[in-house]
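Deliverable D4.2, example record:
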Amino acid sequence: MATLHESAGNKLKAKEPKYEGIPPGILRRMGKAVRIGIGAALPVIRQQPAIDGIIIGTANGGMEDCIKFLNQIIDYEEGMLTPGNFVQSTPNAIAAQMGLLNKNKGYNITHVHRGLAFENALLDAMMMVKENPGNNYLLGAVDEISAYNYNIDLLDGCFKKEHIANKDLYNTISAGTIAGEGAAMFIVNDNAENAVAEVKAIQTIHTENETEVSTAMQQFIRQNLPHNEKAALLLTGENGDVRLLKYYSGIESLFDEHTTIARFKHMCGEYPTASSVALWLVCNTHQWPVHMIKKQGAAGSARHIIIYNNYRGLQHGFMHIAV
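Output generated by the structure prediction step:
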């Protein structure tokens, strides 16, 4: 499950599936963000066809199609514009297309909160499950590498200037990281039977102060981990950016020798909703590969896993998962 693919040009692009089940005429008109979102969602929906709602988190949605449409306005002087690019350009196009393909007329919403888009979508799903026992919701996150956004972020210093392979990401001491994209989808409900994991708690915080982040994590652990129990795993979004190490070091110092510390962004790159990949890995990984392990812990409680993700040193998300 946790396979390490090689990056190219400081980018880790999503490997697209065959898209079975999508009519070719519809597939041709889909932007990449919509394609990879639908491609990730369809296999999940086949396992649980009775979906009561669709909840998606994304920072940029179909940004590439948005730029294409804006360029057409200039090129064609607002004349013969291609409506497809406009339809696919809005962030809610992914959730809307899923609803259309599956004839789902239930709750359909998209959360657009930059680096906390998935965390807010997950929080929404948790509230919906609590308010509507027995319902099933499709929860997911999608973001693509947009040429427009990538160039702006590169000029802003978000990505490394020197070429680096993703397998060497954590061996560098320079600013910036590598770009990524991806889609992750889940079925969430209140049925504990046959569940692969349970989201026990989630918390977000906006700050650039590393002490505030560590204090918030301390409180999060104290409030949510059972008394005298240790977390078996801390999965962090460390991304090779030396400027962000102070946040991750502060968080790691809160866990003792019982907790294994692992990282995942060398497999997917950095993008706003990468924390969805962390949750997907927790749900689908039974043996953590060596390339993910930063520090091997002793045998703690295998049940409790903490996920910490940091986006641009400002947006921080904590999750407590029981497996």
